[in-house]
Each structure stands twice: as structure tokens, then as C-alpha cells.
Amino acid sequence: MNTFSSLLRRGLDDNLAKTLVDSGYTIGKLKSLKNDKLKALGLNSEQITSINKGNRPPIPEDTFIKILYESKRTCCVCRDPSKPLIIHHIDEWNISKSHDENNLVVLCLEHHDQAHTKKELSINLSKKQLLAFKDKWVKETRTKDANAILGLASNDFSRWDYFNHTRIYELFLDLDIDVSNFKTFEKLHNANWVDKLGVLNTYAIQHENKNESYMYRDGHGIIFTYYMKELFEATLQKLPIIDITDKFDRKHIRSLLFPGTFISLQAGFYYK
After folding, report:
1. Which domains, and CATH codes, for the chain?
2. Is 105 helix (H, G, I), strand (E, B) or coil?
3. Whole-prediction pTM
């Protein structure tokens, strides 16, 4: 784990962590400094204690990765990705001694200050509000990867030559997707190529394409292709996809993926 991430796990915000890293500080170098020097660098007493491995251990690496991923490294209150962020303990560490992911939330510095405000006349964020903001934001971010990769379902129809139709239809039926608004549904349904649920009539399609080598080949193949594109996009939009294209390493896989997780990985593939 690099110094920047290690500092975030110890309760520093990302702006301060970046400043320290850019200045050449490592965890080891910071530990060698006296407390007044650490304070001059911008650390508060709790952060100094954490750096010196006092009574607060760093957030576990797996939890740290998962919390940042779920929040898209963005404050769950204002959702402004340009603001410096910090991982906040909903129930204060000094009381809860808990690094459990249910006790952690990603905030910007402004809303972190509000979460720590205790004055009656000041704006503050209660535990109940923080949990509500976090829950709503995490639910919304679960579909962001799916929406981001919908562009992969482009007009390059050759991508559908090798397609797990059975698995897509299994998901499609489980999700109760309404196909009546699909651009191609009415034409295919009227021709008896798909039933009212939207499932392909394999026999009719094979008969229609009896002179072709496969179902997407020329002729009506363009209609089948576009229909599968619509079907796949509709299914994808309802699944909590985790895109590991730029996170394909052991640490992220161990922290983010569990049995039953749906993943997306864009990479080169070759037939040999």
C-alpha cells in the first residue's frame, strides 16, 4: 500500500496526504518527527496519534478500498468529486473503536466539519443523516459502472457473434424487464420471432435464416442484432456492475469481488 493510501487510512484528508507525499514524506519519516513538527505540517492530535500508532490502528486495507470504490471517491452529501475528501467515522472512533465499513463514510472537508459540529445553533450532520446520505449515494453509484459501459454496446454488431444468450435471458427474466418499448420488439413479435415476454423463438429464427451460417448473418440478422443490443442494455442498467477494467489487481479483486458479483472487464482477447 503506498504512502498516500496509508495516510488516508490513518484519518488524513486527501489534500493533506498529497501535500505530504509531494514533500517527500513517508510514514516512516513522519513517525520520526516530534509532535510539534507534525502539527506544523497540518496534522491534528488524532492524526498524530494515528501516525505514531497509538490507540487507533489504520483502517483495514480491504475496507478502505471498498469504501472509496462504493463512494466513487466522492462526498456522499454534496457529491462534488473536485473537493478534498476524508473517511469519517459515523460513531466516533474514540467511542466505537470500530473501523467497520458500516461505520465509515466518505465526506468532503466541509461536511466532515459539519459532522463534527456540536453547537446547537450551527449546521450539523447527524448520524441518521449521514447514514441516509451514504445509503442513497451508494445505491446510485452501483449503477454508474453499468451506465458507463453501455457505450460498449455500440453499432459494432460483430461483438454479438459470441454471446451467452442463455445467461442474458436468465437475468432478463429475473429482472422483469418490459420489452414492449424496444424499438425492434413489435416487428419481431408480429413476425413470431419473439414471444410476448421478449424471448427469441429459436425455431422461427433458424427457419428464417436457414440459408445463413448463423442467426446474425445479413438479412434479418440486423434486426436480431439490434434487439439483443436493446435487451443487453436494459439488463445491464438494472445490475449492480463492478467495472474492474482499471482495477485488475489482487488487492482490488479481494476487496471488491464476492461470489455472485457481476463484473465488467474491457480488455483485448485473442483466438489461438
Report:
1. 1-58 (1.10.150), 61-139 (no CATH), 142-272 (no CATH)
2. strand
3. 0.63
